[in-house]
Amino acid sequence: MPLQRKNYLCISEAVSPYVHAVAHQGTLHISGLTAFATMAQAQETDLQAREIVSQISAIAEEEGVSLANLIKVMIFVTDLSALGELRSVLADAYGDHRPASSLVEVQKLFHPDLKIEIEATLALT
Questions:
Q1: How far apart are CA 114 and CA 35, in angstroms?
Q2: How, if at all, do strands 70-77 and 100-105 pair?
Q3: Which residue in 118, 105, 115 sits closest to 55, CA to CA?
Q4: How far from each other are the two terminal CA atoms of the chain, in whole angstroms?
Q5: Alpha carbon distance 71, 3 (integer Å)
Q6: Is 114:41 a contact under the CB 8 Å cutoff?
Q7: Residue 51: C-alpha distances to residues 25, 92, 93 (Å)
Q8: pTM tops 0.70, yes or no
Q9: Element housing 72 (H / E)
Q10: Residues 6+ apart with CB under 8 A from 27
């Protein structure tokens, strides 16, 4: 089955040489998403995380699935001091369908306002 490279109108346009996601064999690999160009851009980590989760949810919905189909997330944060609030946002979003997860602290993201970036993998079946 060939790769399907996808962009979604429900989130900000991909402006670099990448696509929002690539589907392959029933799995959707979502590029790192941030709160860039949203109302949450200059907000705290938990509010940025809510925005990103809503973007992932919108993509899932467009694909006919939900966050219950999350396989794995890779989370990059610039400051671990807000970890408690972040965990609360993620627990609310995941409910009883918690994915595999990695959390990495990084020095900075591509814009100084950004505090978090999340990559996700969804099962499409």
A1: 7
A2: parallel
A3: 118
A4: 15
A5: 19
A6: yes
A7: 28, 13, 11
A8: yes
A9: strand 70-77
A10: 71, 121, 122, 123, 124
Q: Which residue has the tokens 């950004």?
A: 114
pLDDT tens digits, 84-116: 999 999 999 999 999 999 999 999 999 999 999
Amino acid at residue number 108: K
pLDDT bracket for residue 7 (50, 70, 90)? very high
What is the edge-to-edge ordering of all strands in the sheet holding 4-6?
Answer: 4-6, 21-24, 27-33, 116-123, 70-77, 100-105
Place of tokens 């609310």: 92
Type of residue found at 60: A
Mean pLDDT in residue range 4-17: 91
For residue 99, give both structure tokens.
Answer: 């994915």
**Structure tokens belonging to residue 32:** 């790192």
Distance CA 35, CA 113 (A): 9
